[in-house]
Amino acid sequence: MIRIEYQTQRLSLRFFLLMLVLFFFQAGFGLLLTAQHIDPTLLAGTLNFNVARAEHTNLGILWVLSGFIGAILFVGPLLSKRELAAPGLIKFLFYALLAVVAWNVATQWLAQQGNAGWWLGQPMLQEGLEYLEGGRITDVVIFVGFAILCYVLLRTFPRVSNWNEIHWGLGIGVVALTLVWVFGMFFVERLDLQEYFRWYVVHYWVEGVWEVIHISLVGFLLVLMFGASIKSVGYAVFWGIAFVWLSGLLGNAHHYFWIGTPEFWQFWGSLFSALEPLPLIFCFWHIYLDAHQDRKPIGNVPAFAFLLGSVVLEQVGAGILGFTMTFALTNVWSHGTWVTLSHAHLALFGTFGMLGLAAAYYAVPLMRGVVQQFDQRLGKLAFWLVFTGMLGLGFAFAIGGTVQVFVYRTLGLDWFGGDVAPAMQFAKLMVPAFGLVFMIGVCLLVYDLLTLGLRAKATIDGPAAAPAPTGWGRRLYGWETGLWLLAMWVFGAIITLGLLSFNLHSVQGGHRLFPYLMAGIGYPGLLLTTLLFVGRFLRSLEARCHAAAAQAVLPAGLQAASG
After folding, report:
1. Does residue 263 contact residue 195 with C-beta atoms inside 8 Å?
2. What pLDDT was estimated at residue 416?
3. Helix, strand or coil for residue 31?
4. Structural domain boundaries in the chain
5. H helices within 422-462, ranges in order?
6. Domain 297-452+473-548 of CATH type 3.30.559.10
7. Gap between the terminal Cα atoms of the chain
8. Average pLDDT of 317-345?
9. Tens of pLDDT along 325-335?
10. Which pLDDT tens digit goes with each residue over 159-194?
11. Mean pLDDT across the chain, nearest whole number?
């Protein structure tokens, strides 16, 4: 029976549970925002839209960080083959994270009242910078928390001479997580310079530091799930990290286009931003190769489903949709519109949120002692609900954003006067529809993970008959995977053409056919291809599992004959 090898791994459980609670409330704020988009007077003066949006965004960052910390603490002893160092500091880190959450929620109300608590030229309670709203007090607590995580992990790891690529990935990741935060710990009066440093934190965290941690954790989870070779996974992790930093460091310049920085950033930012999908393609192939080596059956389908979803939505949300909107010639139209929301939701939840959920679905059954006896049906259903719901939200935001760009930035209709709202109404109604699908999935997975080990253990039935090796259950070969990937990028190219067409004189003169046609083909094509590909991938793996289970109960003579 599979058991927890190191007792300090159990300290990760509290971070996973906090992740689930924050995820639930963050999704709830998202539903509230959809309602306020339809009726802007809803809770006006009590919980304004901008405050609810800040809560939604900040809780999203906090629950992702909780999942990352939980995953790092869970795999740290396995990588090091010894218990975590300083367990008392880990407990302190948990309570510090709780304090940051409480402070962050409380100070949003202070911001609505216009109170930032200025002292010695610094906003101590609330600084009002998007994604970094917390004041100096919060900044210091967060810095101390990251320093604790960095200290614990590096003390737990063996000597540097014995590190493999995953050690290096996680080690560099937690150090950079701490150091990059320093750029968010001071206030600058000049708006362009403040934005310059703000994007150091936001971009380098997400497209630099978080990506490094993500690639490292994906690699080690594949080792745990499939017994993949540390050497081969380490090779993939090394090149993934190298490509992330090659493209991501200068790719940060796509945030500099419109804040008063020199014009040359438009070229260099566009160029290196276009290279940022390279490591994501690498990660995409990495998960395919490791999942298909030796055709081993998969024991924990929900954990792998969320891991696969993380990598695929990283490719779609961060890679393809990030690619389509970060050239200067497309970003001038898409920046700050719902097109950005489509990219942001699929990238942040897909890449980093689903990784935390994958780690939780792997670790929590182990810590609850039900790894071989928990009912996986709820987890699989929750995966499909949140995955489909998020793809639907991405579609609604993208279509609404395309309309928004045309009527607001091309025709020049009045946003605040309400002229744009009727044109976007269909998209605004789609958002709560898909949001409800997503929220139902959130409730299911939160319930499932919180109650694992507390409910009756699942009975293990006899193996089902192996499905025929045809249709969607047949083996997924590399060439077919490549075709799926190619189809995604073809639709991404169509989306890019649609955004570039806003620069045409005919479109600026009021002809909307081409950008609407490209969006109407590109976005549904990309998101449906993504949905079908993940279904195909998981179906082929589950068919492999059923075949292995059926083979296990055959008499020895029949097994030899079938082999």
Report:
1. no
2. 67
3. helix
4. 1-162, 297-452+473-548
5. 425-451
6. no
7. 27
8. 93
9. 988 999 999 99
10. 999 999 999 999 999 999 999 999 888 778 888 888
11. 88
